[in-house]
Design goal:
Elements lengths: L1 H14 L3 E5 L2 H12 L5 E5 L4 H8 L4 E5 L4 H10 L6 E6 L11 H10 L2 E6 L14 H4 L8 E5 L10 E5 L1 H10 L1 H4 L6 H16 L2 H20 L11 E7 L1 H13 L5 E3 L9 E6 L6 H17 L5
Parallel strand pairs: 2-3, 2-4, 4-5, 5-6
Antiparallel strand pairs: 1-7, 6-7, 8-10, 9-10
Helix pairs in contact: 1-9, 2-3, 2-7, 10-12
The chain binds pyridoxal-5'-phosphate (PLP).
Length: about 300
């Protein structure tokens, strides 16, 4: 429908790109991009901790595959050297990684891409709408003007919590995806009600930066107070994914259950979603939380933390 096209154009404008294509979910966008843009003569070089949907998407491509160690630029450069004989190399990274809330070293990745004539693909599901002063994502937070060739992201997280995904980038790439990307061709498009609400979200984001300001205030307050109380909070200090490290899997699940009794809904994550011995409670801070709500959550963490002897 017309509104689908309107949303695609709005997404492209938001990201400062030429065009965009909508999918039913970002899982589909990731499943549909690599097979179309690469052949057996190419190589895809991917961070080992990229999201499952990227891994599945890469499996569908006939390109040579190489994994580099998480955020390890030396290893990435090694893989770029090893694949010099390939026609085209694509570096694939999440902008922000979902379990730790850590951010890709994008400036350095881009300079490697320039040096080795590679293109960069970035998944911005955990950045779009809230990272950077106006929510444009990882590039904006790191002070990089739009540069990454292909961005995939979701409408189902910061942008309203409904569903939907997209690819945005050069016009020719988007046109090719429209002709060849299987999850786009062989699946329903987004329901019009979701397209309508997503258009509204972008309109709000593009006219008002108070969301990102509130979020930053809330994130800093939560992280600072939790660290002061003696908890170990992982990830980038500016990111609203705040993983509270507890290490032990049973403890993480018990802690989350006790938090729920206090009226706080947080999720415990343990192996195999995160490495063994790295169990944590992942707290997600929102722009719409009030300071009172954040303090209630911090106080519940302190009470249960003392009960379970995580802090003194
Ligand atoms: C990094 C990343 N990419 C892709 C997806 C898939 O997004 P969607 O829920 O829109 O399919 C997720 C969702 O968890 C994600 O975290």
């Amino acid at each position: 429908m017309d509104i689908h096209r309107q949303l695609e154009k709005t997404i492209a404008k938001f990201h400062g790109r030429e065009d965009a294509i909508l999918y039913a979910a970002c899982f589909d966008a990731n499943a549909g991009v690599f097979e179309v843009l690469t052949t057996k003569d190419d190589a895809i070089i991917s961070d080992e901790l990229n999201h499952a949907s990227i891994i599945d998407g890469i499996r569908l491509s006939k390109a040579r595959r190489a994994l580099y160690k998480h955020l390890d630029l030396g290893d990435l450069e090694g893989k770029l050297k090893e694949t010099q004989d390939c026609r085209r190399r694509m570096i694939v990274t999440d902008g922000v990684f979902s379990m730790d809330g850590d951010v890709a070293p994008l400036k350095e990745i881009i300079s490697l891409a320039d040096r080795y004539n590679a293109i960069v693909f970035m998944d911005e599901c955990h950045s779009t709408g809230f990272l950077g002063a106006t929510g444009r994502g990882t590039e904006e937070m790191l002070g990089i003007s739009p540069r990454v060739e292909i961005i995939n992201s979701t409408l189902g997280k910061a942008l309203g919590g409904a569903m939907g995904g997209y690819t945005t980038g050069p016009r020719e790439v988007i046109e090719l995806l429209r002709q060849r990307s299987r999850p786009y061709l062989f699946s329903n498009s987004l329901a019009p009600s979701i397209v309508g609400s997503s258009l509204k979200v972008f309109e709000m984001l593009m006219s008002d930066s108070s969301f990102t300001k509130n979020l930053q205030k809330n994130v800093s307050h939560f992280r600072n107070e939790m660290i002061k109380a003696g908890f170990k909070v992982l990830g980038n200090p500016k990111h609203p994914i705040c993983p509270v490290l507890l290490e032990d899997a049973k403890l993480a699940s018990q802690f989350a259950d006790e938090m729920l009794k206090e009226g706080i809904y947080v999720i415990g994550f343990s192996y195999p979603v995160v490495p063994k011995g790295k169990a944590r409670i992942r707290v997600q801070i929102s722009a719409s939380h009030s300071l009172d709500q954040i303090n209630t959550c911090i106080n519940a963490f302190k009470t249960i933390g003392r009960q379970l002897r995580v802090i003194n």
